[in-house]
Each structure stands twice: as C-alpha cells, then as structure tokens.
C-alpha cells in the first residue's frame, strides 16, 4: 500500500464500492458541496485529531477541493507533517429539528500545498469565485493555498445510511 492509499473500509462498504453504485449519489454529493460554503477540515498530529473550519471550493469533477490557511497556524503545521485529511460537509443548519433529514459527506484524501504559478492561479480563482471576500487573504504571502486530491466520498443520509463514492471510478 502506497502512502496515498487509504486503509480499507469495513467489509460491507468495500463490497458496496465494488458493485454497481447508486447513480444519484454523485449528484447528491455535488449538490451538498455546492450548497454549503464551509467545511470542517480534519487533520492529525501527535496522535491527536483536529478539526478546523474552512471555506472551500470543489472542482466540477469532484476529484479535488481547495482551501487557504495562514501559514502561522497549527492547521498549516499539521498539514506539513501529515497530508492525509478529511473534509466534512453537512446540511444540519437546514434541519435543526429533524436529524433524519440531514445529509453529510466526508471526502478523504491528500492535501498538497500549491506553489505560485498557473495551477495556484487556477485553484485560487476557483476559491475566490465562490468566496470573493477571500481574494486578498488568498493572495497574501502569509497564506498558503492547498488542493485536496480526493480519494473517496462517504455520503450519509437518514443519520446512518452510508453511500460510498470514488471519483476516479465514476468519471
């Protein structure tokens, strides 16, 4: 297993991922990601998990996402030490009185810091188009822009129904 492979999921989820998946899962994931402007970025360090609120944007093919962070933060240090991350997005604010209607998605993958150049510019434009107020923050030399290469999504409905989806296998 390479450093970019994820550990296998539970046997039931692995079986679901190998079979024919619900074709609407991708659309539901896309809709949720596009409706919700903020996510929790999950990192790890020193044997401890951490969660940080981030403004993000996702590529149209759902294979990658982007966010920015100041370099003088624990978040940046943890990302520099371990590139394995999860991005969690949910709709709980829409349904404060009925958890069975809440949708959530966890995107797992690897975070890559982007150096100035055409790729940086493309991802910065994607992020600042979605979040125009971040334009000066993203351009500031004391900020870093990251791309998350997404390995898999876990889409959860009705508080317990898990639907996995892998971008590479679904075009």
What are the salient characteristics of this protein?
alpha+beta, Pnp Oxidase, Chain A, 171 residues, 8 strands, disordered N terminus, 8-stranded antiparallel sheet
Describe this structure in words.
The chain is α+β, with helices and mostly antiparallel strands. It has five helices and eight strands; from the N terminus they run H-H-E-E-E-E-H-E-E-H-H-E-E. The protein has one domain: Roll (Pnp Oxidase, Chain A). Strands 1, 2, 3, 4, 5, 6, 7 and 8 form an eight-stranded antiparallel beta sheet that branches.
**Could you give a short account of the major beta sheet?**
8 strands, antiparallel
- Counting structural domains, the number is 1
What is the CATH homologous superfamily assignment?
A: Electron Transport, Fmn-binding Protein, Chain A
Q: Helix and strand string, N-terminal first?
A: HHEEEEHEEHHEE
Category from helices, strands and their pairing: alpha+beta
* Bulk shape: globular
Q: Count the beta strands.
A: 8
> Which CATH-level-2 architecture?
Roll
Q: Approximately how much helix is present in the residues?
A: 25-40%
Number of contiguous helices: 5
The overall pLDDT average reads: 87
């Amino acid at each position: 297993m390479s450093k970019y492979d994820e550990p296998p999921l539970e046997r039931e989820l692995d079986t679901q991922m190998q079979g024919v998946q619900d074709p609407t899962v991708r659309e539901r994931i896309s809709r949720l990601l596009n409706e919700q402007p903020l996510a929790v970025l999950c990192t790890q360090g020193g044997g401890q998990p951490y969660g940080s609120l981030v403004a993000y944007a996702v590529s149209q093919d759902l294979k990658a996402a982007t966010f920015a962070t100041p370099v003088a933060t624990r978040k940046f240090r943890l990302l520099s030490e371990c590139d394995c991350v999860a991005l969690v997005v949910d709709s709980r604010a829409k349904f404060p009185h009925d958890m069975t209607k809440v949708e959530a998605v966890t995107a797992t993958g690897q975070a890559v810091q982007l150096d100035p150049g055409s790729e940086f510019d493309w991802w910065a434009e994607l992020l600042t188009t979605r979040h125009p107020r971040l334009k000066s923050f993203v351009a500031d030399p004391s900020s870093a822009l990251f791309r998350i290469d997404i390995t898999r999504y876990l889409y959860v409905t009705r508080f317990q129904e898990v639907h996995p989806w892998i971008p590479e296998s679904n075009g």
